[in-house]
Amino acid sequence: MDESSHAIFARFFGGFPDIVRQASTTLAKACAVDGRLDNARLDEHQVSAYELALSYAEYRAALVAWESMAGPASDLQRALSAVYVATAIQSIRVRLEPLLLALGIEPLDFDHILGGKELRSVLQFCLDPNRLADIGRRVIEVQADVGEIELDDDKTMMQTAFRRLADDIVAPRAESIHRQDLTVPEEILQPMREMGVFGISVPQQYGGTAPDDCADNLSMIVVTEALSEASLAAAGSLITRPEILTRALLTGGSESQRLEWLPRIASGDVLCSIAITEPDYGSDVAGLSLRASPVEDGWLLNGAKTWCTFAGKAQVLFVIARTDPDRALGHRGLSALLVEKPSTEAHEFSFEQESGGCVTGKAIPTIGYRGMHSYDLVFEDYFVPATHLIGGEEGEGKGFYLAMAGLTGGRIQTAARASGIMRAALKAATRYAQDRKVFGAPLGEYQLTQAKLAKMAAQVAISRCFAYRVGSLLDSGEGQMESSLVKLFACRSAEWITREALQIHGGMGYAEETPVSRYFVDARVLSIFEGAEETLALKVIARQLLEQALNATPSSP
């Protein structure tokens, strides 16, 4: 790109934040009552808020791409970055243009930033079919190894070791686990324990490998991405549950609870599951109703949970329950408990305590993400000792906050899982494009295939860079908003990448014997768990943008 093209892109990056501020201010005023956002009014503007959140996520990803173009990147990385920036600008314009009136954006202002002959010319250059085809050929030459990430020596060694583990131990078993709906076997779990997978988020003082004075999200991203490239369900998601529980214990647990549980979590001696979602509430954590009633020396659980991943194999469940019967308290009546149970690989189980309490579970049949299994759970007078209430008496009413503390890490980890699946799908598509001959020539020699690979590679490269950038922010104590943005962006990207990879495979992509079919169905779950896409966009990203706008708006005299 020449200097004039850079200047035109720079105008977009300099001006789009003003568009976001104007849209956020307009929505905030429409949704506020007495200076505060009102949920009922927010619900009346869901479409505008949703599209604004998605546009902002695409903009932040494009900003990462733009910044990488100015750094010490390879020619291919710069070319992929330019492709993504152009694609993002097109997408943002399509999203927001129908909503200009609702968002209070002047058409002339919008066209100045996202329109005009000069910008159109630059977009046409970046997305020219012949240019895309040339980039696609270069992607094939490097065997789809795109998305340059600078890592220190320790992280590079870690990445190499876990990619080898994924290739040698996980990949050979991934297809049988998926197609036969098996539970993750000890042949995978034990090497994971030996490699310290379950202790990546646990501080060293409690037996893990994380620093005692800060988080280590970058290590978690490196490991998660490497394992997810071999299998999301059989390896890439094994870290998520121990990380969520670890963060909850570090945030609100007592020192005695940390000393008791964290070393066992780090070693993998205790496998974890998370029991937050309920049948009638989905992502509405504040509305949860599973009841924990106080009894002598503890609590009795009564109610149901759903989508409790790994709940069969796990020996401890992180359960969010209502310890205060006053439903008007909302999330302030919720607490977090550590609920022990025996481990099983069965798809259905029922465990009865000596006191008569019982927990039953049944695995939910799913189209993908097989191996860990998600369960429906029912508790009937299930006894939990008082010592297992996280934070003890001081922890009563803090369950919502402890769950949110864990899920923040879960979001960036989900972005890493998405990156792993995308890498696997892009590599599979590239290999197939070289091997498969259509009408007398390899599929990869056709312009359309090359252009597809170029756009796919651009999305993969920028998603990876975005995830690692946010990981660094989180390690420095920042990046809470960004973790939601990258989760939203990466998961949507993974769905599209795996869809295109399957399409390149044609009929073979639809066959279960081809790994790309597994990537496709596994990727679909990413936009649902760790905060459904709609909830994340509306209740987290858009709400934060609107609150910032509201706080920045001078009050009326």
Low-confidence runs: none
Distance between the termini: 50 Å
Q: Count of DSSP E strands?
A: 12
| Percent strand | 5-15%
Summarize the structure.
By secondary structure, the chain is of the alpha+beta class. The protein contains 19 helices and 12 strands. It has helices at residues 3-31, 39-43, 46-70, 75-96, 100-103, 107-114, 117-126, 129-141, 153-179, 186-194, 217-230, 232-236, 240-252, 255-267, 399-435, 447-475, 480-505, 515-523, 533-552, and strands at 32-33, 36-37, 272-275, 291-295, 298-309, 316-322, 334-340, 348-352, 358-363, 374-385, 437-438, 441-442.
Summarize the topology.
Elements: H1 3-31, E1 32-33, E2 36-37, H2 39-43, H3 46-70, H4 75-96, H5 100-103, H6 107-114, H7 117-126, H8 129-141, H9 153-179, H10 186-194, H11 217-230, H12 232-236, H13 240-252, H14 255-267, E3 272-275, E4 291-295, E5 298-309, E6 316-322, E7 334-340, E8 348-352, E9 358-363, E10 374-385, H15 399-435, E11 437-438, E12 441-442, H16 447-475, H17 480-505, H18 515-523, H19 533-552
Parallel strand pairs: 3-6
Antiparallel strand pairs: 1-2, 4-5, 5-10, 6-7, 8-9, 9-10, 11-12
